Structure formats: C-alpha cells, structure tokens
C-alpha cells in the first residue's frame, strides 16, 4: 500500500448556496481530472531529467537546466533553469495524449530568482513540432519585489482541431541574460463540466432558541472604597459579552453593572495609585472611575490583544503581561498621567506567554510560559535579566503570577508557590497553595494568608513558617480565590475593624478577622452572563451544551426547555455517550464527568455523583475533544497540557461497582500512538479504533511534525494495527494539517475531513483546502473525496470538524468552519446557513442545532402537515373529549414539540366548544375542529376533524345489578326504510344489539321498547354501559354512560318525563 500523496481524480467543490432558497435550478459543476505528467515533480532522479527535454542540449555555455535540491515546493527536488547567455533556453515535458476540442489546464509552481520565466501549454499533432495554438497559451512569471517565493502558473486552453498531444514548456528568451527560476509540481488536468441538480434541503429558516449556558464565573476581582465610603468589591464575569460589576464587599449588594461587548474574559484587573480601577480585555485598556461609577476606554495597548495580568506601581504606571503565538509574550506600560502606552518588548525570546506580573518601585517581575522562566525588567534602565528558580526554570510550565512582599518574591506556578529572596534571588522554599496570596497583614507585616482547598493558611515571611488557621469554617474549596485584600468595613459584624477579604471564582466571598478569629461568608450578587458555547451534542431527546471556561446545560427538545443548568461545571471540550449516559470531557486536566438524566441530579466536582467525576485521564493530557463509542466502551482522544506534545487515546468502560449497588468506571490510556501529535478525530468499527490527528499539542509549543496522520488501534491486542500514515487525498497538494472528525457512515465507509495547507508566495499559510473523504476501513484506500470548502488560516487546530448523519440520508458537517449538507452518494454539497459555524448537531426529528456565540439556534425541518385529533368524535350532549395535535415533517419524522404552542378552533362553538385543549359537546349537530400550531416561528393549521354531537333520546332506562336492561327509544317520526337498531357498549366495545320492531304512539312521538337479557350483558364484569341507536343505518342517538342501578331508579334523559 502506498501512502505518499499523489494527485488523482476528485470532483471540485460545489458553490456555497444559502439554505432556505427558492427551488434551485440545475447548475454546471466544473471539475478537473488529473492527467499523468511524467516526472512532473522532478523526483525520479537526482542528476537527470527523465521525461523532459532541454533545448539546446546541456551542457551549454551560460545555460543551466538541471535537477536541484536548493528549492522544492514539494518533495526534495525541482528543476533549476538559468539563462546567462544570449541564447534562448526551453525545458519541455514529454508529449501527453489529449483530445481535440477538450479544455485542459496546466499548473506549475514557479520560484523566480532572476527576472522572469515564461510558461507555455502547447498542442501538437503526431511528430510535428508545430504548436497548433500558435504560442498563444502562455503566462509570464516575474520575480516579486517583496515577499518573493513560490508562485502558481496557471494556463487553461482548448485543444485545437487536429491536436493529439499537449506539452508543458518553460522558456527563457535570447533577449536578455540573468534570468533564473525553479519549477516544480507540473500538472495537466482535463476540464469537465457536469450539469447537476443542487441539493434540495428539507429546512425552514433558522430560529434562535436562546442563550444556552449562563454563568457568573469571575477570572478577576479587586477591592476598594466607594464614593460613599463603603468598602467595594470589583468583579468581572466571563460571558458573551463580558461584564464588570461593583458590589458591596460586606453584603454582596450589586451597586453597578455594565456589559462590554466584543470580548468574553477579563484576566487583568488592578486598583491604581489614582484610586480608580483598571482592567483590560481584547487588547483595550479600560478605567473604572470609582467616584463616578463610570467606565471609559483608554485605547489599545501596543503589545498584544490577550492581556493576562495587570499591575500598578505607586508612581502612576500600569504594566500589562500579554500573550501571542506569533508576536511572543510582551509587556506594556501605561502612564496614567499622560495617557500614553509603551511596549517594553519580548521578555523571553521564543516564549509566547508573559503571564504573571509583580511590580515594585524599580522592577517589573514577569512570569513566563510555557517553558517556565522568571524575568526581571529594570524600570530605570530597561535591562531584562533572568532569575533562576531551581527545579522550575527551563522546564515545562507557566509562572502565572508574581507577588513581592516583605523582601520576598512569591512566584505562582499551578498549585505551587515558590519563595525567593528579592535581593539575592536565593531560593527559600516551595509551598502548596491555591491561586492567590494576600497582601501582608496590617496586624503583622510578616504574615500573608492563602487558601489551600477548604482551609485557610498563614505564611510568616520572616520566620519562613506555614501555619494552618484553626477555628474557622471551611472556605469555598471547589474554586480558586480571585482576590485578597485588607479592608475596613463601615457596616456589619466587622464595622471599624481591619479584616481579610477574599472572593472565589463564583462570587463566594468571605471576611476574616484574625484578631477575633471570626469568619463570615456572603455571595457577590452579580448577574450571570451568557457564556460562549464550547461544546454541543445530542442524544435521545436531549441536547447537552457546554460553556467556555465554565457552565453546562441540558435542553429538552420535547418541551423546548433547558431542564438543567450548572454554572460551576468545568469547561467541556467534547461530549460523548455510553450506555445512554453522557460523558463530558473537561478542561483542564482531561477529567471525565458522567451525567445520567434518568437519575436525580446532584453535582460534585471531585467525587462520584450525578453529574460527578468519573475518570481523571492524567498522562499530561488536558483537552478531550474527540469521542466515539462502540461495544460497550467510550473512546476518548485528547490534546496534552501546555507546552507539551503528544496526545492520547483513552478507552473507558462501565462495570458493576464492587459493592454491587451501582456503576464503576475503568479506563486505560495509550499515549504517543502518533508521536508528537494529538488525537483530533475517532471512529470505531469491529474492534478497531480509527484515529486522525492534529499536528499541534498544548498551547505554547510549536508542532514538530510535517503532516497529520491516521492510525488504526486494535482494541483486543491493545496496539496499533498499522503504522500511522498520511492518506493520499486527491487534490490536497499541500501538507495535511488536521484529520478529523471521523465517522463510520451508514454505507460502512470511514468518513473524515482533512485540511490541506495552501501557502502564499512567501511560504506562509494562506488557507486550508477542507476535503471530505470516504475510505474503505479494511483496505484504508480512498473511495471518494471532494474539496468542499476553504478553512481560514487561523482555524482552530483543536476543535474537530463535526460529522453528523441525518435521518434524511444526508451528511451534515462543520467542514471549513461552515455548516454544510452533503449527499454521500455523489458528494454534492450545499451550505445550510451563512457565516461561521463551529458547533452543530442533529436533533431527534432531524432538525439541526448550531451555535453562534452564546446563542443556540435551530434549523427546523419543514412541516408536512398537522394532524388534529379527538379521543372521541361522536359525543353525547355534555360529554368532553381531549384534543391532540401531531406535527409531521417532510422527512417522515414526527416533530419534537420544542415548546410549540397549539390552539384549537371550532366551526360551531354552539355545538362543540373548545376550552383548555378539551372539546365539550353543547348541542346536537356537527362541528369542524382544527388545530393551529405555532412552532419555530411558523403557523400551520390542520385539516378539519368532523365532530358530531348526538341527542340522548333514550327514556326509562333500567340497568339493575341482576343484569336486566330495558328502556325506550323516542322518535319524532317512524323510520322510512330499515328498522331501528339499539346497541349496548361497554368500556371494551360492543356487548349486544337488537332490532326494535314494535312501537307505540303517544304525545306525538314514537316509542320503541327494547330489552336485553342478563346473559347478553355479563353484568358481573360490566358495570357501566352506553346505548347507541341507529336509524336508517346511521347513528341517531347516544346516551351518557349508565351504571347499574337499583330497581325503579332508571335513566331519564334531561328535559323528558
């Protein structure tokens, strides 16, 4: 089997057509079928040019035409063509058979290093050297004045009459010297035009369901004093948009709140020397004017958009630490008085994160990642030096924050606090802690406080001693502290006392008096914000939704309601299903949480619960994006943590708990199946897991491998079934960057998506060609493929392109970060909605759900019909019957109700009235009942259901416990044809019937007597009956339900004696 990529036949991408359009006309689809060019990539020899001729023959003074390894667009070789003589030089391919009248396209990659080179597509007959097109099919490629590099030559022309062969030629004329160029990847293709019918999609326009996840997560906070002298707490909340809030630091009362559109997180926030609060998001610096309770924008910093920390100096300066994977980790300065910015530059060459800051009068200390370094910037000289932390510096990790207190440097790295001497930089110790340390206590300047899980600790800077504070309640243990400060409240328990304040990530706030050892908690009353949706999957009637940074919800498609919302749930990256139960793969640490919607809900972060922690993958893994299941196992693909390469495949299964009362989870992890690559897509079939990779690893580290690969893992042998390989996907000419998702289709083929790199002339990435392919899972050969879309150059290398099969037989996908429908038979494709779509899934009725920001959208399947129904359409006066409506879709599915509204109408309310979804018989006659359904912005009316209300003309009815039944039927006139029939019905149906032949006349009516024997009615089992009378073959009268009664207590219809 050959895995080296080569060009082969593939249909070209269809035009993206918006959904919900008028019926589409047939359209022409242009395609190019590759025709072999002998040695078109110049790889067959390193010292000759088989398949090519050179005129004049080499060697020739001042001319050169030879294989070269100096430059190559693909592979290792190209042909170098140089003309430093007054002669012309031409390098031509062999003759390639063509058909006259057909159109052909010649392409080649050309790197001009001197002046220019001209390419020709020549057509010839037999052994003639004459170009039948007269040399008109040509293109000149000249050297670029800026960003010179590989360019694409493209010539398209029709083969003229008599043409039998085509030839590619590259020519340098005799008019000048100093021309030179490299040529590579010469290809010839036949242009074909097919007339096809575009996909007709079964959808109506999208509707907005609403914000899917709401959370009050904070990533930054601070304390200060407000205009009225109250101690205030400044809190930011993550969301779309992000928001800034001011609350009373004693009561949690909300005092000020303002959203900031255009961003989702504020990491850096600090009080400054002017008494105001400063924060930054999306590169913009903001000031919250405390006295005026007003936010103002101050401008973009000159370093990078992502600001992770912001600290203030005592002399009116602000410093910001930033991240960029291209511009590297930089620090900026802002002068409050002048309102000016200054970029202080990259703090550590090659490192992307300037993460944490500590500021003194003469220094700015900068924590670096994802290889950990502590840097010192001299505020007077601008000199940058490194401070070594033994066992930390130079190793994988990020120093997330720096504090400088009491002559000590306190450097945060994950759950470790490293203490150094500020003057000598001598290492003192490492402390286990959680997220933040307090400023020194005003009661003892050597004491700082911090939280570790649910306990409060004190560290003595002078004595280098750690002490657990006893006698205080447990602190919020599930979340990290975002701010500490010493405050003096004017109200409440601690009025007039200087106490320690702190706030955890969800607004859990506390005040602690170290003198009295008294502790109080309250919540910062900040409104939850809509979170950007980060994960979306469907299973059964539920949609499972995960929020960015925090939050999770469950949406019931039958009711149209969010039935569960967990604001503190860790950020889900991917969601999978096993045995009908949802598994959430969360960031960070690649922890798997299990949720069973059929059981009572109780969340615990670090324990077995519902939802609760089911598995901790470990193995330096961080982000579980890819999941699939089969044969009672869940297969999970992950990306590693910051600064690491090498993802993993984890196999999880459920077993009976040891005590036999519940479920236990076992898992096994296999890392580095594809060295230095992460798992981007997974599919399962017959004991084998098929995987696709992404070249990237954790954030902050560059990929080392040239191309993404596929692998096949044998779950029985627990090893690779074949060595990792890069599939040869037609028309993907550049290196494949990612492969995934993968899915076994209804046709048994292995379907997947791959991004092929397309570069600019300067070698940088322009975009990716996104190809859909189907592979034989046994032979691993490509069966069909097509470039559907282009992925932007900055597309996520972490989130897969999703593949979902609809009940209509179409494949729905986010290929190219757009929502497409694809016919798997012929790969016709159609864009369903405009714009970027990263997340989508298919609901139980075939409707599509997708996400834009925080909003969940639904693309409903078109309605075929609404069917109204009544449990009984033949009623007696006074009888009630429940009404119902069912919505049937054009795909044959019954619609999920999704919160639709329905109302019922009656054509004759005086006969049959509708009230609260129930039909009530009022008087004899007929009425047409219709259901009017409002669903997803559409109003549809059902066909009428005819309901008839019959009079009760029975009199003197006696049904006693002995089973005897007798009575009379009253008629205003005798029957004209057939006799009168009386039927007796029980709850299970017809019991007996008889024809009434005798009649008596009196008072202008005809009375027909009837009588049934006990043997006909089985009174022991039938306690309730209903009478029906048929006149002339049609139902004439209908009685209410009649119970057995004592003798003499007969049934008398209303209004009759």
UniProtKB/TrEMBL annotation:
Keyword list, A-Z: Signal
Task: Cite the InterPro entries for this sequence.
Answer: Galactose-bd-like_sf, Kelch-typ_b-propeller, Quinoprotein_ADH-like_sf
Secretion signal, residue range per the UniProt entry: 1-26
Q: Does the keyword Transmembrane helix apply?
A: no
* Keyword check for Signal: yes
The record's annotation in Gene3D superfamilies points to: 2.60.40.1080, Galactose-binding domain-like (2.60.120.260), Kelch-type beta propeller (2.120.10.80)
Could you identify this protein by its name? CBM-cenC domain-containing protein
* Species of origin: Paenibacillus flagellatus
| Taxonomic lineage | Bacteria, Bacillati, Bacillota, Bacilli, Bacillales
């Amino acid at each position: 089997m050959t895995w080296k990529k080569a060009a082969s036949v593939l249909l070209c991408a269809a035009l993206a057509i918006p959904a919900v359009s008028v019926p589409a006309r047939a359209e022409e689809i242009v395609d190019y079928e590759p025709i072999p060019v002998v040695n078109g990539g110049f790889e067959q020899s390193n010292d000759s040019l088989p398949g090519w001729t050179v005129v004049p023959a080499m060697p020739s003074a001042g001319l050169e035409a030879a294989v070269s390894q100096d430059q190559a667009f693909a592979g290792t070789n190209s042909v170098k063509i140089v003309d430093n003589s007054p002669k012309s030089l031409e390098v031509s391919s062999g003759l390639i058979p063509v058909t006259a009248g057909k159109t052909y396209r010649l392409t080649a990659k050309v790197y001009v290093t001197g002046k220019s080179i001209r390419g020709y597509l020549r057509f010839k007959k037999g052994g003639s050297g004459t170009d039948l097109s007269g040399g008109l099919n040509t293109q000149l490629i000249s050297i670029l004045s800026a960003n010179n590099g590989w360019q694409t030559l493209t010539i398209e022309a029709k083969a003229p009459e008599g043409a039998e062969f085509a030839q590619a030629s590259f020519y340098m004329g005799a008019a000048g010297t100093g021309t030179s160029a490299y040529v590579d990847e010469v290809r010839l293709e036949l242009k074909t035009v097919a007339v096809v019918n575009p996909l007709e999609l079964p959808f109506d326009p999208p509707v907005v369901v609403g914000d899917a996840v709401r959370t009050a997560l904070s990533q930054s906070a601070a304390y200060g004093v407000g205009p009225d002298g109250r101690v205030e707490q400044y809190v930011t909340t993550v969301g779309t948009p992000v928001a800034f809030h001011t609350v009373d630091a004693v009561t949690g009362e909300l005092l000020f709140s303002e959203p900031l559109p255009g961003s989702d997180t504020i990491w850096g926030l600090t009080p400054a020397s002017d008494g105001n609060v400063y924060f930054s998001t999306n590169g913009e610096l903001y000031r919250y004017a405390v006295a005026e309770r007003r936010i103002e924008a101050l401008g973009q910093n000159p370093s990078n958009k992502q600001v992770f920390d912001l600290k203030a100096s005592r002399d009116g300066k602000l410093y910001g630490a930033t991240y960029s994977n291209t511009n590297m980790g930089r620090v900026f300065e802002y002068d409050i008085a002048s309102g000016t910015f200054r970029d202080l530059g990259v703090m550590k060459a090659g490192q992307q994160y300037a993460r944490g800051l500590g500021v003194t009068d003469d220094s700015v200390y900068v924590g670096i990642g994802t290889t950990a370094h502590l840097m010192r910037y001299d505020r007077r000289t601008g000199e940058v030096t490194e401070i070594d932390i033994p066992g930390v510096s130079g190793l994988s990790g990020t120093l997330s924050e720096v504090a400088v207190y009491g002559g000590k440097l306190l450097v945060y790295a994950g759950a470790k606090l490293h203490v150094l001497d500020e003057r000598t930089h001598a290492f003192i110790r490492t402390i286990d802690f959680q997220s933040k340390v307090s400023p020194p206590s005003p009661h003892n300047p050597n004491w700082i406080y911090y939280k570790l899980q649910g306990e409060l600790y004190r560290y003595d800077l002078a004595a280098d001693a750690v002490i657990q504070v006893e006698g205080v309640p447990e602190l919020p243990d599930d979340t990290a502290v975002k701010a500490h400060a010493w405050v003096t409240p004017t109200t409440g328990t601690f009025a007039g006392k200087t106490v320690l304040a702190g706030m955890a990530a969800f607004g859990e706030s506390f005040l602690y008096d170290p003198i009295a050892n008294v502790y109080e908690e309250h919540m910062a009353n900040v409104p939850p914000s809509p979170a950007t949706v980060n994960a979306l999957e469907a299973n059964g009637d539920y949609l499972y939704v995960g929020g960015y940074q925090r939050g999770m919800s469950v949406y019931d498609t039958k009711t149209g309601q969010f039935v569960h919302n967990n604001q503190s749930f860790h950020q889900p990256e991917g969601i999978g299903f096993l045995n009908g139960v949802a598994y959430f793969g969360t960031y960070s640490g690649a922890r798997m949480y299990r949720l069973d919607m059929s059981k009572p809900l109780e969340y615990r972060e670090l324990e077995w619960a519902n939802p609760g922690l089911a598995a901790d993958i470990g193995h330096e893994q961080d982000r579980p994006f890819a999941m699939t299941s089969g044969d009672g196992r869940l297969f999970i693909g992950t990306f590693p943590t910051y600064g690491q390469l090498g993802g993993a495949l984890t196999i999880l299964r459920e077993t009976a708990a040891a005590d036999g009362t519940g479920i236990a989870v076992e898992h096994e992890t296999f890392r580095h199946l594809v060295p230095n690559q992460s798992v981007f897509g997974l599919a399962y079939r017959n004991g084998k897991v098929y995987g696709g990779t992404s070249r990237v690893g954790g954030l902050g580290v560059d990929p080392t491998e040239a191309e993404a690969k596929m692998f096949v893992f044998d779950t029985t042998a627990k090893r690779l079934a074949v060595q990792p390989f890069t599939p040869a996907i037609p028309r993907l000419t550049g290196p494949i960057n990612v492969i995934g998702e993968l899915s076994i289709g209804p046709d048994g083929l292995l379907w997947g998506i791959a991004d092929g790199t397309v570069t600019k002339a300067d070698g940088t990435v322009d975009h990716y060609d996104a190809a859909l392919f189907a592979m034989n899972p046994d032979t691993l050969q490509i069966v069909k493929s097509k470039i559907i879309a282009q992925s932007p150059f900055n597309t996520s290398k972490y989130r897969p392109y999703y593949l979902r099969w609809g009940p209509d037989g179409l494949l729905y996908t986010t290929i190219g970060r757009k929502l497409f429908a694809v016919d798997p038979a012929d790969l016709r494709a159609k864009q369903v909605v405009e714009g970027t779509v990263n997340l989508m899934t298919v609901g139980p009725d075939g409707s599509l759900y997708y996400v834009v920001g925080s909003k969940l959208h639904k693309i409903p399947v078109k309605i075929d019909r609404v069917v109204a129904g009544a449990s009984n359409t033949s009623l007696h006066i006074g009888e009630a019957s429940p009404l119902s409506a069912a919505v049937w879709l054009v795909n044959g599915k019954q619609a999920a109700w999704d919160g639709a509204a329905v109302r019922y109408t009656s054509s004759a309310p005086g006969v049959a009235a509708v009230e609260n979804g129930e039909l009530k018989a009022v008087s004899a006659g007929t009425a047409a009942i219709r259901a009017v359904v409002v669903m997803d912005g559409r109003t549809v009316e059902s066909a009428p259901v005819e309901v008839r209300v019959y009079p009760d003309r029975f009199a003197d009815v006696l049904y006693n416990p002995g089973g005897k039944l007798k009575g009379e039927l009253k008629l205003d006139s005798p029957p004209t044809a057939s006799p009168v029939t009386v039927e007796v019905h029980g709850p299970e149906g017809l019991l007996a019937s008889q024809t009434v032949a005798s009649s008596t006349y009196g008072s202008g009516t005809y009375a027909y007597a009837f009588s049934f024997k006990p043997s006909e009615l089985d009174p022991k089992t039938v306690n309730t009956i209903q009478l029906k009378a048929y006149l002339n073959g049609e139902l004439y009268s209908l009685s209410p339900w009649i119970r057995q009664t004592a003798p003499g207590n007969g049934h008398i219809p209303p209004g009759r004696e």
